[in-house]
Known about the structure:
- By secondary structure, this protein is mainly alpha-helical.
- The protein has one domain.
- Helix content is 71%, strand content 2%.
- The protein has helices spanning 25-43, 54-75, 81-114, 118-132, 151-165, 172-193, 205-223, 235-247, 250-256, 265-286, 296-327, 331-377, and strands at residues 16-18, 230-232.
- It has a two-stranded antiparallel sheet.
- Helix 2 runs parallel beside helix 5 and helix 6 packs antiparallel against helix 7 (205-223).
- The radius of gyration is 21 Å and the shape is globular.
Amino acid sequence: MSETGTATDRAGVSTPVRSVPGRYVTLDGMRGIAALAVALFHFDFIRAPHGYIAVDFFFALSGFVLWQAYYTRWKERSYGTLAFMRQRAIRLYPLFLLGIILCTLTALGKLAGEGWNSAVAHKILYSLPTNLLMLPSPVAQALFPINLPAWTLFFELLASLAMVTVMFRLPKWGLIGICLISAALLVPVILERQNANIGALWREWPTALARTMFSFSLGAVIARLPQPADRPRGWAGALLLLAAAYLLGLFVGFGMGISIPVKTPEVGLYDLACILVLWPILLILGARFEVPAMLAPPARFLGDVSFALYAVHWALIDPFKWLKNDVGVPALLSAVLYIGTGLILSWCAVKWFDEPVRRRLSAYFHRTRKSSLAASTA
């Protein structure tokens, strides 16, 4: 959900060009669009009727990127389980922590504005210690009641642990086996529920685990496919971004289509088609085609702020719903202001909080490792 490198190319080049390893700009743009869809769905679901299935794309993208970034180093024994999980924690925790803090402040502000509610206050108080450790709440129905979308980060950490301890050791057919078993557990639940918006509650944890492991392991399978050394830059990448936005319902929500019901058999089938078929296709193609040079900067920007937007957007929902419902700001304008504020806050969070904190943590653990090595050889 949260890893990329960097890439630069000349403007206007449509023939195959060498892409900088480690960064897929088209996938950056897709990840940003997916984060926008999740944020809009939580604010006003008609703005992105299928925003919740962006989570499955996040899981697939994480499996793809992590396999490419770490498998060779793990195989060469330069990256063990502890180092891998420490790196994942460094990548995920700072923005996770910021999201929890902002959501707690928003919840306390809501309590102050609407009148004291002891049940809500106790839920915050008793959930906060475990949630701060990236662990589910032991007292609430929701795994992360303070910042509801954070359940996906917990399950991504579990999938990361499974990758470094089990999946790296499996042949390709073993990863395919994980996909098939996870799909067999996931499909009946989605068909019965009639949508795939599942995973945030304690009673849904088996389905959340199956949902995570299917897409995460499928991303690893895709990473094991032959990857092109050169990725053509052109409008094929732009069309892939439009396809991702369309499938998530962004065009529907802004008046360019017909709204889709929340739960029907057709919605369940649509969600399954995206999770099982369309997201893998977009991931495969997005890793092979780059956007035109003129779209590269916004795609990179969306990729850079996507994880921060996912981590902090829940804190902005109540203030902007107050703006819409109590102040009377039109719904569409409220959604635009909400997303605009979210993007600005996310950029500031990345530049002034996440990146400095991660640099310091990485430097600290690097010094600690060097000191340990020096002590062991003394």
